[in-house]
Amino acid sequence: MSTFDVSGGRPPAAGRRRATGRSAAEAVPNRRNTELLMLLFAVAVPILGYANVGLAIDGTLPANILSYGLGLGVLAGVAHLAVRRFAPYADPLLLPLATLLNGLGLVMIWRLDKAGPLLRKNFPATTNQLMWSGLGIALFIGVMWLLKDHRILQRYTYISMVVALVLLAAPAFFPSQDENFGAKIWIRFGAFSIQPGEFAKIILTVFFAGFLMVKKDALALASRKFMGLYLPRGRDLGPIVVVWLLSILILVFETDLGSSFLFFGLFVVMLYVATERTSWIVFGLLMSFGGAAVVATSEPHVKTRINAWLDPMAAFGPNPPKQSSEQIGQTLMSLGSGGTVGTGLGQGRSWLIQFAAKSDFILGSFGEELGLTGLMAIFLVYGLVVQRGLRTALAARDPFGKLLAVGLSSAFALQVFVVAGGVTGLIPLTGMTMPFLAQGGSSVVANWALIAVLMKISDTARRPAAEPAAEPAPAIPEPAGPDRFGPPGYGTPGQSRGASS
Amino acid sequence: MSDLTLTVMRLGFLAVLWLFVIVAVQVIRSDLFNTKGAARTAPRSTAPAPAGAGRPPQGQGAPAAAAQQAQARQRRGQPTHLVVTQGSLAGTTVALQGQTITLGRAHDSTIVLDDDYASSRHARIYPDQAGQWTVEDLGSTNGTYLDRQRLTSPMPLQTGVPIRIGRTVIELRK
Predict the structure, then answer these.
(1) PANTHER family, from UniProt (chain B) (predicted)?
(2) DSSP state of B102
(3) Alpha carbons A307 and A136: distance in angstroms, whole number
(4) Are A491 and B112 contacting, i.e. CB atoms less than 8 angstroms apart?
(5) pLDDT band at residue A318 under the 50/70/90 scheme
(6) Which residues does B122 contact at the CB level (< 8 Å), separation at least 6?
(7) A55 → chain B, closest CA residue
(8) Rounded to whole angstroms, how far apart are CA atoms A369 and A109?
(9) Contact residues for A36 (Cβ-Cβ < 8 A; gap 6+)
């Protein structure tokens, strides 16, 4: 028998912890070098596109190709260093994928800047967009640095609900302006404006995740079966009705079809994931169709969109109907002229999409110049971002992290679907931005923050289990009362309340 | 700029774009298999850490190399994974690397139980001095059951024996 076997106690904790820490670092690859390589690739692709545009339009390489490349490279490099420092085990793909999309968006915006007066209301936006991307990366690093653990967010469940509601409601109180294109979703401070809805998306997901984590059992189990569907109790149904009404109110007061669809869809997805009850999806679909039908018949702005969706070409006819718009028709034509492999960067006529070719309809511009082949690649990149997010949710060990990752990635997916579906005429068009690609400061900044939170969750999930908290103080057992996150009265019958043993 | 160059660039750009997507998918693929590989190799490299505290049955006089070999042999019979088989976390796997695994509703637990019958700090699973995995109840309200028997003191864990905490069932696997 060895000498250490006498006491029967535990081996020295410090030594063991040090040992596991060291071996974990050795054994589990943290994939940061893969990320660096992918990042180099992701910066190289937009630079190639940039050169391509310059050659096609001016016949020479663009003069500032070096500074553009360096700018994008430095942004990506700084973000990479921040990941190495603050989230060493994070997913290796999220950052390169986001960088590629952001870079491609910059190229297309620059290309449309060069179209000059051919594009209506064309003012150079590349510098601004680059600046916003920088700000987005800064926020990315800030989130990485300040958010030590995503579980901290759980403490702010109800605060984030209030913040999100304030952000969502704020634009309704600001005076409407001409350039708002029908939807009141901007807040203006002098020269620049922000879209608080983009940030509300993330904050609301935090609320949903925190709320559902506490409530999911009540929602899943306490229900009556009725015609094959599980009907939840009234008090559990309350929140979903409130969110539904809220999204309808956004629609009515701010006429923002996209956001209300996004928020409601997000809540339904998260409810489904949390409770595993199909009935929620049925309810969700019924309620969203009901809400959309009511609003579509009453709101003129929404009605125009629906008309344009039902008959995109009507606006080009000899006597166009009053409530119609030619945007979708123009986009469909640009997609068609792109064909399978596209006209090539810089060789299309994307300015023929008269309205918002750089922002809402940037997919049309891409579809024309890169064709179906390029558009499919872009959609796949979006799909990979969502896949990495859902993978993170699967790997996460805590329910809050799981729900948050699912929520953030489905918000991202829903937004891509809403924009792509709208632009291609699958669903009625809604004024939302394509994440990272489209011109628009708030969108870029908010989506970088979203990626940062996802990476932070994946860092926790993929980190080998050698956490400092792995050594509890066993001498002081915690009181095992009812769920301390739940409201009083929410507990399981089998649990003795407040008993500490 | 000649048409040929532009055509080559146009198709080249699409090719590069797709190459990026394909490489990204390859990274995902290697990621899938690498994590498994890491889980398989990690316990072996950590083996000396817990067992070094006193497992070798040959006694303290045995040469270090022989002791290590013996450990390696024993390691092979040792569990490498902790698997949640029932409850809301069913399917979760934690690689055993010689560290203590805490179970409970507290956020800093290794496995955060989302179970109304679980206490904040419910139980822990750790290798004892002899490197034998052991489960200990940390004074939970509803108790920890090792194969239908409520734990009153730390008990050695065998592979495949279910530990029940509320609605959650956990077991060690090789």
Answers:
(1) NUCLEAR INHIBITOR OF PROTEIN PHOSPHATASE-1 (PTHR23308)
(2) E
(3) 36
(4) no
(5) confident
(6) A480, B103, B104, B105, B113, B137, B138, B140, B144, B165
(7) B1
(8) 13
(9) A80
Residue A448 neighbours by CB under 8 Å, 6+ apart: A98, A133, A136, A137, A139, A140
Distance CA A368, CA A349 (A): 8
Task: Give CA angle at A346 (A342, A351), nearest 5°.
Answer: 90
Inter-chain CB proximity B116 and A217 less than 8 Å: yes
**How many angstroms separate the Cα of A401 from the Cα of each of A152, A397, A398?**
10, 7, 5
Residue of B nearest to A471 (CA): B100
Q: Between A482 and A250, whose confidence is greater?
A: A250
Which range scores top for mean pLDDT: A1-15, A181-195, A252-266? A252-266
Determine the Cα–Cα distance for residues B171 and B128; give it in Å rounded to an integer: 17
Residue A406 CA to residue A390 CA, distance in Å, equals 6
CA distance B65 to chain A (A): 16
ipTM: 0.79
At residue B152, what are phi and psi to the nearest 5 degrees? Answer: -115, -20
Contact between A381 and B21 using a beta-carbon 8 Å cutoff: yes
Q: Tell if the CB–CB gap between B10 and A465 is shorter than 8 Å.
A: no
| Of A305, A271, A325, nearest in space to A429 by CA | A305
Condensed to tens digits (0 to 9), the pLDDT of residues B123-164 reads 988 888 777 888 888 888 888 888 888 888 888 888 888 898
Q: Which amino acid belongs to residue A327?
A: Q
Residues of B in contact with A28 (CB under 8 A): 35, 38, 42
Number of separate helices (H) and strands (E) present in chain B: 3, 11
The burial of A462, by beta-carbon neighbours within 10 Å (0-12 exposed, 13-18 middle, 19 or more buried), is given as buried
Q: A384: Cβ–Cβ under 8 A, 6 or more apart, which residues? A: A93, A97, B21, B24, B25, B28
Max CA distance (Å), chain B: 84
* B143 Rama sector, left if φ>0, alpha if ψ -120 to 50, beta otherwise: left
* Distance, C-alpha A274 to centroid of its chain: 19
Query: How far, in Å, CA of A139 to CA of A304, rounded?
Result: 37
> What is the nearest CA distance from B139 to chain A, expressed in angstroms?
5
The string of DSSP codes covering A115-137 is: TGGGSTT----HHHHHHHHHHHH
Interface test with A, best of B4, B89, B99 (most A CBs within 10 A): B99
Q: Which two tokens stand for residue A376?
A: 């499919």
Phi and psi at A137, nearest 5°, equal: -65, -40
Q: Taking CB atoms and an 8 Å limit, are B14 and A342 in contact across chains?
A: yes
Task: State phi, psi for B69 to the nearest 5 degrees.
Answer: -65, -45
The answer to whether the CB of B83 falls within 8 A of the CB of B170 is: yes
Please, which pLDDT band fits residue A176 given cuts at 50, 70 and 90?
low
Crossing angle (nearest 10°) for helices A278-298 and A234-254:
30
Contact A475/B at CB under 8 A: no
Span B23-37, pLDDT tens digits: 999 988 887 765 443
Q: The pTM is what?
A: 0.71
Residue A114 CB partners (closer than 8 Å, separation 6+): A53, A57, A346
